[in-house]
């Protein structure tokens, strides 16, 4: 596992590009085709003088690379998913899904067939049921990789951003997410959250986290980033990104800053469409670039691409994932990044609209990417890259550059010496009392109070009848439990994201029979039904406290709400913190990390960046 000392040993000033010594090129030059499909290329990367790699790492990487066939090397660039809670799953549903997607029964066969370099975990693929199961799956995957002709350990990755995007849930420690950390303004808290999260992931066999989000959320209507961002201020986001890169990587987990060149000013979700960002080059330098520069300086092991078009950076109309001017010109050459560039999922619509699934992997590698994440068809992606090498469109030397970077991270993270985890040690790392307490302390410094117009807060001690309503079965249940621990009698009436008018009327009638209403909103700015619910509750005559458990922007669309808190997250620690604020147990220390515009944005700001009230007394 990598510690600070080791990181300083193997990480130094970045040098763009990976140079090759002419002496190791095969006869016929860099584009010469191998004698046969199984031939081992001798076009192995030789770091130029002054590179940051220490001699031991460089030698180990090159010895491994020299043993690999072209097919094995291309496999190292593929990161995909497999269904099942075990590497050798025989569950009929998982087997059927794997056959449909990959033409194999399970992850073991996937690794054997394609020599994939990485597996990514999701809840929907059945990978993350509980900590012991996750550790067993990780060990099974690594055993399958160790059984290959060249036993390269796997990258095991997941999206554990915390807050509203996470794959590994409780009992693993949950943190409040990026925008909440931005509201807390503490880089120490951001680093500590990443360090704890990284340690828990590593204990489960996960060695790469697709976090932190380095996007600067300057568009309140952004449908895909929002609270996943630390905020709208490039300096704040940069500081938080650097802190989290340090935290994850000092715990032995590769951090992944995403989504380059910046996904924070878009009104289109790249999962379903192709966003176009009209930032000029100067705006990009001022707004989007600082967090990625900070990630590069911090030595981030990987940076993820965005499926967005930025015409002022590349007028071709190609998404950044497929853009050589963006990935090689900006990220490699101008920012000096020589870590691993991983694409965002190649299943997303944003990268598939212009080219077919057989061209996208080749174009991504030509642009400068190293890892191909979740190609829609693994066989098509692999075969397309192999054919591109054989035809001369891609050189094997270019493949070697990417494989070198991928292997280098695996060596740095100690995976060649310590690829397995101890399931019996999970309890001493994952979800410990110390970690849970740390998460709660951090969350308690993030809650933001935007309105206390009627002086409702802090609530006086004593029994009261509370109706808990609004979005989320788990959210309303957690809130009710927290209120009950403080002496309240609660009734829960969860209403979802789009309650019917009949449901709104029924809940509003119930409100009149209680002393207090606590209502949770989730993206109410885009939900007329949630807005009507809050208005009806306010009209009931019972005091109402509104908790925005995702976007702070909701407040502009709830003009009648007199008591309004923003948690930026529905993690249990965030909900507990909000209830603490309601009762005055903690001050609402959080300050808005974004500007909240009025309901009509052309009318200016409702609450400025940095706004946040304290409790009286």
From TrEMBL:
Residues 69-409 form the Glycoside hydrolase family 3 N-terminal domain. It comes from the Bacteria. Residues 448-614 form the Glycoside hydrolase family 3 C-terminal domain. Residues 1-32 form the signal peptide. Its EC number is 3.2.1.52. One of its GO terms (molecular function) is hydrolase activity. It is an enzyme of class 3 (hydrolase). Gene3D superfamilies: Glycoside hydrolase family 3 C-terminal domain, Glycoside hydrolase, family 3, N-terminal domain. Keywords: Glycosidase, Hydrolase, Signal. The keyword Signal applies. It catalyses: Hydrolysis of terminal non-reducing N-acetyl-D-hexosamine residues in N-acetyl-beta-D-hexosaminides. Belongs to the glycosyl hydrolase 3 family. This is beta-N-acetylhexosaminidase. It comes from Streptomyces thermolineatus.
